[in-house]
Amino acid sequence: MAESSLEERCVEVLDIPDDLDDEFLSLYFDNKRRSGGGSVVSLERRGKHALVVFEDAETAVRVVSKTHVLQNNTLTVRRKPPKDPGKLLLKGLNPHTSLDHVELYIENVTGMNYETDFILYPSPNKDLVVVHLKNPLDKGL
């Protein structure tokens, strides 16, 4: 196996139709001619999303560079975004939820203080809020 990190060998697949079988999806990404892929180490699916791990990073780069259409459905394939323990994303918020309520929620869940421990950044539509932590969360939380 190539000497590349797990993150470099992973791709995220989005917009997977419910009726698309996991084995078919794995075989597709294992087929270099059809998908640009190669040896699939693992495929973990959750609903309409999947994480595909390839044997080497070059395969992941090739797969991301192509357009993928399966059973007349276009799949979105991208590099897996890196995790940042200093940031949280709250999504699916009611746009009418006040930042004060979000602040109170974060304080109650984390035990942190808004004035000293974190900053809130709402999206323009107010349905997302990025919580920037001044100190990353402890894994036990």
TrEMBL record:
Note the InterPro entries from the entry: Nucleotide-bd_a/b_plait_sf, PAR10_RRM1_2, RBD_domain_sf
Q: Which domain of life is it from?
A: Eukaryota
| Pfam families, sorted | RRM_PARP14_3
What GO molecular function terms would the record report? nucleic acid binding
- Under which name does UniProt file this protein? RRM domain-containing protein
Q: Which residues form the signal peptide?
A: none
